Amino acid sequence: MTQVVYDSTYEGWLTAVFEIYEYKFTDVVFAKEDASNSLLFSNLHMVATDIEKAKRVFDGLKKRLSASGLEMVYHAFLSEINKMDEILFQFVKYVFASSGNVEGDLSNNEVLAVRKAAHLTHRESHRMKAFIRFQLTKDQLYYAIIEPDCDVLPLIKDHFKKRYADQRWLIYDAKHKYGVYYDLENVETVQLQFDSKSNSSQILAEIADEQEGFFQDLWRRYFSSVNIESRKNMKLHIQHMPKRYWKNLVEKIPNIKN
Hints:
The protein is an alpha/beta fold. It contains nine helices and eight strands. About 7% of the residues have low confidence. It comes from Flavobacterium hungaricum.
C-alpha cells in the first residue's frame, strides 16, 4: 500500500492523481500534509504540487466531462467529506477507463457519492451568501466570521467582491483557519490568528466602530418585527438556518448592554 501525501489543495490532489498513474501505484490511500500514524508500515509518497501535472489531469477530465461535471468534481473536493479525495480518485479512474461520459451513471457508487458531495458544497455556499453578517471595525474594515462544514470561500469570494465592491472586507473561516480579504481592488487569501469567539461585548467594544452596536440593534429589532409569532415554525426555520450558524448571526446574538 502506498500513502500519497499532498498539500490539501485541489492542485495538489490533481498532481497526486497524475503521479499515481506516472508511478503505476495500484493500492493507494491519500493523506493531507502529514502521513497517518495508522499506516506506519505503508510506502510513503510525498507529492510536491506541480501546476503542469495538475493541468494535464484537468485537461484529461475536461475532454471526458461536461463543464458541470468538472464543476461537480471541484465542489465535491471542497466538501471535505471523509476520504473524499480517495472517492474522487476512484471516480477519475472510472472516467478515464470509460469510452463515454459517465457523470450521469448513478448506478456507480463513486459517481453517486461525488454528486451528493458536490450538492452539499453548493448548498452550503448558497447559504453562506445569505447568512454572512459583516461587522464594522474602527478602521472601517467590514469583517465576518464563518464556520462552514465545507470549504466554501473559493466559491463565494467573487459574489462578495461584486456585491461590496466599494468597501474593504474580510471573511474569515474559523474552521478551515484562513480568510479572504478585499482591498477595493483584489481579493487575496490570508492566513492569520483570529479569535473565533470574539463576539463577546468586551472584545467587540475594543475593535468595533462606535456606530456598530446601534446598527446591530436596529437589525435585531427589524428581525424581531417581521417575525410573526403565530406562524412560527422552528422545524422549518432550523432546516433553512441550521443552528450551527447561529453564533455568527447578529440577529441570534443577544444584545448585551453594559
